[in-house]
Amino acid sequence: MAFNPASRQLLAIKAALFALALVPLARMVYLTVSGQLVEPLEFITRGSGDWVLYMLCITLALTPLRRLTGWNWLVKLRRMAGLFTFFYGCLHFLTFLWFDHFFDLAEMFRDVIKRPFITVGFIAFVLLIPLAVTSTNGMIKRLGGKRWQWLHRLIYLIAPLAILHFWWMKAGKNNFTEPLITGAIVAVLLGLRIVWSRQKAAAARV
């Protein structure tokens, strides 16, 4: 039997997810302020980067989960998950710009060009910006449904770039376990979309 929450229940679910999504940030702030970290910069950089990937996977998982369960209300959580992906992306980029380069943009861009894993991560972050900016209902109306959908398909490029960034970063320490797991999850989530898209096209031809 499909679960269809009432308006108040859905609001409570959104509030709970909002609070849970802020827990990683609260933990980073607490551990940093309390002086419990030996390398706070590395911890925040790695932690924020990890949560970009986690929130990206959650965002990509909501549509397949909706289709498999019939819980259409899950699509109403996608915007929040996507914005938290961008939020942790901003935090990740800010640590890079602030603590690594002290807001020296010229030095930052030299670093972006010099190191490929930073290049792909930077591209992925830049591509997230138009998705965040156009996430409001007003922007959907201005762009029109079809153009908005085409724009937000950038997520299918952002996800592989984020995985590549993670892979190259971990390659320096010969630690491929996490990138392989995350990459497999993203591959499955994107693969389901490809299968469903082909099924829809085949049905349309018939």
- Determine the oligomeric state from the structure: single chain
Helix content: over 70%
Compute the gyration radius: what is it?
19 Å
The residue ranges in which pLDDT falls below 50 over 5 or more consecutive positions are none
Shape: globular
DSSP strand tally: 0
Biggest sheet statistics:
none
Element pattern in H and E:
HHHHHHHHH
Distance between the termini: 31 Å
What's the total helix number? 9
Chain-averaged pLDDT: 90
Structural class of the helices, strands and pairings?
mainly alpha
- Note the beta-strand portion: under 5%
Pfam families: Ferric_reduct
Keywords: Cell membrane, Electron transport, Flavoprotein, FMN, Heme, Iron, Membrane, Metal-binding, Transmembrane, Transmembrane helix, Transport
Subunit structure: Heterodimer of a catalytic subunit (MsrP) and a heme-binding subunit (MsrQ).
Family: Belongs to the MsrQ family.
Quick description:
By secondary structure, the protein is an all-alpha fold. It contains nine helices and no strands.
Polypeptide structure, described:
The chain is mostly helical and 206 residues long. The chain contains nine helices and no strands. The protein has helices at 7-33, 40-69, 78-100, 105-114, 116-133, 137-143, 145-152, 155-171, 177-205. Helix 3 packs across helix 5 and helix 4 (105-114) crosses helix 5. The chain is globular and about 55 Å long. It starts with 6 loop residues before the first helix and ends with a helix.
What are the salient characteristics of this protein?
single chain, 206 residues, mainly alpha, 0% strand, globular
